[in-house]
Amino acid sequence: MNLLQLYDKLEKLVGMLPSALQKPILHEITPVKNLFLARRAPRLALIGEGGRALLDTLFGANWLDSIRVVPPNAFANEPPDIFLLTAPVDLESASRAVASAPAGVIAIDAGPNLPPMLAERLLANFVSPVEKQALAEAILEALPDNARLEMARISGVRSVQNRIAKALIQSTTAICTAVGTQPIPLADFPILLSLQAALVAAIMYVSGRPLSLRLAGEFLAALGANVGVGIVLREGSRSLLKLLPGWGDAVSGAIAGAGTYAIGKAAAAYFIEGVSLADARRIFKSRRASAPRAGDYPKADLPGRE
After folding, report:
1. Same domain as 171, residue 26
2. Over the stretch 42-85, which tens digit does the pLDDT of each residue have?
3. Helices and strands of the chain, counted as H and E runs
4. Helix H segments across 122-276?
5. Which of 3, 16, 159, 243 has the highest CB neighbour count under 10 A?
6. Same domain, 268 and 165
7. How far is Cα 297 from Cα 291, in angstroms, rounded to an integer?
8. Residue 171 and residue 25 share a domain
9. How far apart, in whole angstroms, are the C-alpha atoms of residue 218 and residue 240?
């Protein structure tokens, strides 16, 4: 089962929850699903002689599998997301090419005196040697939402990958918090476990690894986020919270959210930051104990969110 199939299954499971919970949960699931469903390669139009060599230097040979180069003046139905302008280049010819599509320009060594068309579209103007992180972040900012995921993967830049991972963690935590508030014992557990595995798999993919729910499950087990402990923690808490009318569901939701938040932070640290598994376990335990309250999670910046 791939990630999109999993989210389809989750949407069906959500349909079995109380109707009052379905709308807020689906509101969070949809943008996460769309991030993967609508993802595509960034489209760059290279103008000047140094474009391909620059991409080779910054991103390695594998960029050809993840970035689509669109020939200038031959856009057809695939206009570029960005014009990448590299010296040496004929600036007047570059102006005519840029005028043919509504995309911004990132320039390398183009000089301070650009023609009006290029100056109006200029997003960033770098001077060699170009720092990889700065260029990757400039490209990411200029891309539409559905092309950002692949840019994060190919860039290998931690700040870019962490930005996507942070949004995934926030959104998935909000979903699990909402699911955890529903009062049917154990009925929500398959949804929570599936969401947490999907979160880990998504972070793995962002880091440049293959998308694998099996490996995500192995990572959860290695963290100590196992099924038995989860059931005891959540169901034991529910039994005790019956003594606190009105608070039980809210606290149970916070437990689900805290666990998900901790899993996401540990996964990002391990797969993106490169910490050891032992350190990832420590992050999981500390984050689970000190995770923000449900209302403190910022809204995730994901495609499809209003």
Report:
1. yes
2. 999 999 888 888 888 878 777 777 788 887 666 667 889 999 99
3. 13, 5
4. 132-142, 145-155, 158-180, 189-206, 213-223, 227-241, 248-268
5. 3
6. yes
7. 9
8. yes
9. 31
**Which residue has 């196992």 as its token pair?**
226
H or E stretch at 285 = helix 277-290
Give residue for tokens 């959500």.
Answer: 14
My answer on whether 32 and 77 are in the same domain is no
Per the structure, the complete domain to which residue 165 belongs is given by 3-39+157-296
Q: How many domains does the chain have?
A: 2
Give residue 255's identity as a one-letter amino acid code: I
DSSP for 132-150 reads HHHHHHHHHHHS-HHHHHH
126 and 134 in contact (C-beta within 8 Å)? yes
* Cα–Cα distance for residue pair 103/121, rounded to 1 Å: 7
CA 152/CA 41 separation, integer angstroms: 11
Question: Is residue 185 one of the residues assigned to a domain?
Answer: yes
**CA 106 centroid distance within chain:** 23
Q: Verify that 166 and 280 share a domain, yes or no.
A: yes
- For residue 265, the model assigns a pLDDT of 95
CATH code for the domain in which residue 86 is found: 3.40.50.2300
Backbone angles phi, psi at 122, to 5 degrees: -65, 125
The pLDDT assigned to 271 comes to 96
The C-alpha atoms of residue 275 and residue 201 are separated, in whole angstroms, by 17
- Token reading at 48: 């000047």
